[in-house]
Specification:
Blueprint lengths: L1 H10 L4 E2 L2 E12 L9 E4 L10 E16 L2 E11 L19 H16 L3 E4 L7 H9 L9 E6 L5 E3 L14 E3 L13 E7 L2 E14 L4 E10 L2 E7 L6 H9 L3 H12 L30 H34 L1 H7 L14 H14 L8 H9 L17
Parallel strand pairs: 2-6, 6-7
Antiparallel strand pairs: 1-2, 2-4, 3-4, 4-5, 7-13, 8-9, 10-11, 11-12, 12-13
Helix pairs in contact: 2-3, 6-8
């Protein structure tokens, strides 16, 4: 994937904030029924539909993307995808302070590894699930040659988050006198100076009220920038490890986080990027029993290598699909006018001058099927034409009916 990352940085219009590109990370659960597929395990069901079971069996992927865009259109280009659950038996990984690795620590390691391969300091935005101490501590470990963190994190704080005002010099830190529950500050507008401003949030210009505070956060024993935001009747708190980041810029960065959800939809439903089925007889047969774990101690060295090879093939399949998504986004940003001219479909509304990945895929598929008719007939093209499925359906001619 380093070659792919370098290509994206060179060829695509990368969004930068204070000289740092923006990485977007998140996880996704993919249902898998194979009993001989590596890393398949019971996962919590994220769907809000209460008719579904609480757990599913499948793969949990951690994905990191890069924010790119032009002409008011922003994409999340996937850079790297890894399976983050059920792999401890097959892959050595590092947690925090000798503890076993978790989804949180693996995502933090993935962000730092991606920034190192890109060769530049970055911002990273994650959702509230990763707003915990280990995420900040792992990102804090990796520094640039100048001594600043290689990756600064922006995320949404949990409603129960507690901070401490910075005490006067010489006084003990984290005293109860300086302790404050951040959500209670929204009800103290008569004392605190909440400001009002217009900001681009989720693609729209909207008015928000905000308050910026630099407080001590006990999980990392250091300062964190908190921004309390009230928007359209909703209250939420953002947090960042960069104390110099302006609050409105922090809010705009977090608004871009939703682009990874759009990317997941394209990767899963448009390209079938998770429709893999790599398995091996060497994998212990999956059992639906609660608490089941594969018995890897009895596997031979050859069987272990077979399982690792199947796991690698699974991740490579998904990463190749990630590259395909990035190419569609690159074409959309580079040749939007030409793509619209060749698009033969119908859209009710055109939300942007830049076409979506679905529009680009439709144009490419149409042009590919028409390619043999535009060039000299060769043996290869003749084979392609012979394999094409005809879509013409013969219907009997309509007979004119006479009036009764």
């Amino acid at each position: 994937m380093p070659t792919w990352m370098n290509w994206v940085q060179t060829m695509c219009p990368v969004l930068n904030f204070h000289g740092r590109p923006l990485l977007i990370g998140d996880g996704i659960n993919i249902a898998k029924e194979g009993r001989k597929m590596p890393a398949v395990k019971a996962l919590h069901q994220d769907s809000g539909n209460n008719s579904k079971k609480a757990t599913i069996w499948g793969h949990h992927y951690g994905v990191v993307g890069l924010a790119i865009g032009a002409l008011g259109k922003i994409f999340c280009t996937p850079l790297r995808a890894e399976i983050h659950e059920g792999v401890s038996q097959w892959r050595l990984s590092e947690g925090l302070n000798g503890e076993p690795p978790t989804i949180v620590t693996r995502m933090a390691r993935l962000l730092t590894a991606t920034a190192q391969q890109m060769g530049c300091p970055c911002y990273a935005v994650l959702d509230a699930y990763f707003a915990v101490g280990p995420t900040f501590l792992i990102l804090k470990e990796t520094l640039t040659p100048e001594g600043s963190p290689l990756v600064h994190l922006i995320t949404r704080a949990k409603k129960s988050t507690v901070g401490y005002f910075v005490p006067e010099q010489g006084l003990q830190r984290f005293r109860d006198a300086e302790k404050v529950k951040l959500m209670t500050l929204f009800d103290r507008t008569d004392v605190l100076d909440f400001r009002t401003a217009e900001v681009s949030l989720y693609g729209n210009i909207t008015t928000v009220s905000y308050l910026c505070l630099d407080l001590l956060w006990e999980p990392i024993d250091g300062l964190v920038r908190f921004v309390l935001v009230e928007h359209a009747g909703q209250r939420f708190i953002l947090m960042s490890s960069d104390w110099s980041l302006p609050p409105l810029t922090l809010l705009r960065i977090y608004g871009i986080r939703t682009k990874i959800d759009v990317m997941f939809d394209v990767l899963k439903n448009l390209l079938g990027g998770f429709c893999d089925h790599f398995w091996t007889r060497s994998q212990p047969t999956l059992s639906r029993k609660k608490g089941w774990k594969p018995d890897v101690a009895r596997l031979s060295d050859a069987a272990t290598e077979h399982v690792r090879a199947a796991l690698t093939a699974t991740e490579r399949f998904v990463n190749l699909a990630c590259i395909a998504v990035g190419i569609l986004q690159f074409l959309a940003l580079t040749w939007p006018t030409s793509i619209w001219q060749h698009y033969t479909g119908w859209l009710r509304t055109y939300s942007s001058e830049v076409p979506s990945e679905r529009v680009v895929k439709t144009v490419i598929a149409t042009e590919f099927m028409n390619l043999p008719r535009k060039v000299r007939q060769t043996g290869t093209f003749q084979i392609i034409r012979d394999k094409q499925r005809t879509t013409e359906v013969s219907h009997p001619p309509l007979q004119a009916r006479s009036a009764p």
